[in-house]
Design goal:
With 565 residues, the protein is α/β, with parallel strands linked by helices. The chain has 19 helices and 10 strands. It has a 6-stranded mixed β-sheet with strand order 6-7-8-3-9-10, with helices on both faces. Strands 2-1-4-5 form a 4-stranded antiparallel β-sheet, with helices on one face.
């Protein structure tokens, strides 16, 4: 808990003035609150003595105290809201920043639903905690001040109240402890629910066609039932603790009345002081509920803070400090090993790619073709060995220097849920450049035929475009980035012949201007590649042009099937 508070405190560097004001005014406010019961008690005593002049003076004094109390709390609230805003804003920004700095393995620690819940719900719970903490602490301190005054009036009654408070806190604490346990359980299942709902939305088409609706709905129902059950248990323990505490307050009220009668009969307590003591019994018993609220808020804070800060603690990508302003496009893999879950993908792998060359990479599924691209873009890190970009180890380059020179287009590129123009101008906002690149990839006529042209909003993941149009838009985005190296991963898969031919024409235009690495099994593309790298079990078993490989390489012949590999 204290570590989490300390980590929240790191976001308060610019709020030192507000914190000092809050602390000072909270002290003054507590002093005023502590004095107030004494003033009220004196008013009652003076009323009983029929000393009305002093009653008026004390009443005016009490009003002035209340005025100061109100002003102090208004200033406290203003400064509190300022530093609360800074904490929450800082946490949310830091968490979002961390998501894009994860090492690739970190994305498998939590599902998408879990990460979203942590950012959205748990960061909000921290805000709720901060708000409740301020109110509960101030109220608890004020009521403790009243308890001191009652000790001053009669220590025997004061001891009785103190015993009652301790017992009530114990009862409430047990309820809080059990409640937090089940809250944690409900959050864990809730995270799974969010991930499951995401799968249902994304896989709705397959779920329907494979007749899996009943299975997924049953799975969702079971999960929702568990969440509801845990939430019910979390709330019922709090309710039980609250009801038992209320009953115990009534019991102690009766005990205190009996003790007070005994004290009055023996001239150990005046009737006026009894009236004061009994008048403040609600405030005294509130001490247990306020302290319990503080404990509950701290428990919930720790739960939410642990979840939020766990994101910040995920393993981050590591980059170097060297900068590479311009890139020729030379690539070298030198003695590279890479293991995935202790399974070797590459061992002592070596490969050299010359600038402005077009290299095709082929091989059966699972031989490491896509892994090669992930290693080059530093999405994955070699277990051993080095990768060089223009004779500089990519591990020594800054993130900016590495990624501004390499663009990757995948088999299923992700398009953002915004307009076509917005998808492109986030790379380059020059409209002339955008139209030029769209014309180059053969997409300009299609875009202009749309009712809203470049302002056409793409549905989530570009579902209102065909597969070929999505690929062309992704290629246009990569070209706008003006990177020297283009990595194309199976971009012609599942496309019609006409679209494949247009992409081939595009690659021919780009050839010689970029270093292009392309994973492909299309024979027409392989025929004009400068080199074809044939991979098998993480090793290069062929490295030449198509004509030579088709004659001499047995593995290449084995992969050859009609017009495709």
């Amino acid at each position: 808990m204290w570590l989490n508070l300390k980590r929240c405190g790191l976001f308060l560097k610019d709020c030192k003035r507000e914190i000092v004001i809050i602390i000072l005014l909270s002290v003054f406010s507590t002093i005023v609150t502590t004095i107030t019961p004494s003033v009220n008690g004196s008013i009652i005593n003076r009323m009983l003595e029929k000393n009305y002049k002093q009653v008026i003076i004390l009443a005016i004094f009490g009003g002035i105290l209340h005025l100061f109390y109100t002003i102090f709390n208004m200033i406290i609230s203003k400064n509190y809201l300022t530093f609360r805003k800074n904490i929450v804003l800082g946490i949310r920004k830091k968490v979002c920043q961390s998501i894009l700095n994860f090492d690739i393995d970190a994305y498998t620690i939590d599902g998408q639903g879990t990460i979203i819940n942590k950012i959205k719900d748990d960061s909000r719970n921290i805000v709720v905690f901060l708000n409740g903490l301020k109110e509960s602490i101030l109220a608890a301190i004020a009521n403790i001040g009243i308890l001191f005054y009652i000790f001053f009036l009669n220590y025997i009654i004061g001891i009785c109240y103190l015993i009652a408070i301790i017992l009530l806190i114990i009862i409430r604490y047990y309820g809080i402890k059990k409640s937090i346990y089940y809250t944690n359980k409900s959050l864990e299942i809730g995270d799974q629910n969010s991930t499951l709902i995401g799968e249902i939305i994304k896989g709705a088409k397959d779920i329907k066609t494979l007749k899996l609706k009943d299975k997924f709905l049953k799975k969702a129902d079971n999960s929702f039932d568990k969440v509801s059950e845990y939430e019910y248990k979390s709330n019922i323990y709090l309710e039980y603790a609250d009801k038992i505490s209320s009953f115990m307050e009534s019991v102690f009220s009766g005990i205190i009345i009996i003790i007070s009668i005994f004290l009055i009969k023996n001239n150990l307590l005046t009737i006026s002081n009894f009236i004061i003591i009994f008048m403040y019994k609600v405030s005294i018993f509130n001490i247990s509920s306020k302290i319990s609220n503080v404990m509950h808020n701290f428990k919930k804070f720790s739960l939410s803070a642990n979840r939020v800060f766990s994101i910040l603690d995920y393993k981050k990508e590591e980059f170097g400090t060297k900068k590479l302003e311009s890139c020729k496009g030379n690539i070298i893999f030198k003695n590279v090993d890479f293991y995935y879950d202790k399974t070797p993908i590459f061992e002592n792998f070596n490969l050299k790619i010359e600038e402005n060359s077009f290299v095709a990479i082929i091989g059966k599924n699972g031989v490491g073709k896509t892994t090669l691209f992930s290693l080059l873009t530093k999405v994955l890190t070699p277990t051993k060995g080095d990768i060089y970009l223009d004779n500089i180890k990519i591990s020594e380059l800054t993130e900016e220097s590495l990624r501004k020179h390499i663009s990757l287009v995948t088999q299923q590129p992700y398009l953002f849920n915004c307009s076509i123009k917005a998808n492109l101008d986030m790379i380059d906002d020059n409209m002339d450049h955008i139209k030029e690149v769209c014309e180059l990839v053969g997409l300009d006529k299609k875009i202009e035929s749309l009712e809203k042209g470049y302002q056409t909003v793409l549905r989530e993941d570009g579902t209102n475009l065909s597969g070929g149009e999505k690929q062309k838009l992704a290629i246009a985005r990569a070209l706008l980035a003006k990177t020297k190296i283009l990595l194309l991963d199976e971009i012609t898969n599942n496309l019609d012949t006409e679209t494949i031919d247009s992409i081939i024409d595009l690659i021919e235009k780009l050839k010689g201007k970029y270093t292009i690495l392309m994973i492909t099994h299309n024979l027409d593309i392989l025929k004009f590649a400068d080199r074809i790298i044939v991979l098998d079990q993480g090793k290069i078993v062929g490295d030449d042009k198509h004509d030579t490989l088709i004659k001499k390489n047995k593995f290449y012949k084995e992969l050859y099937r009609g017009n495709r590999l």
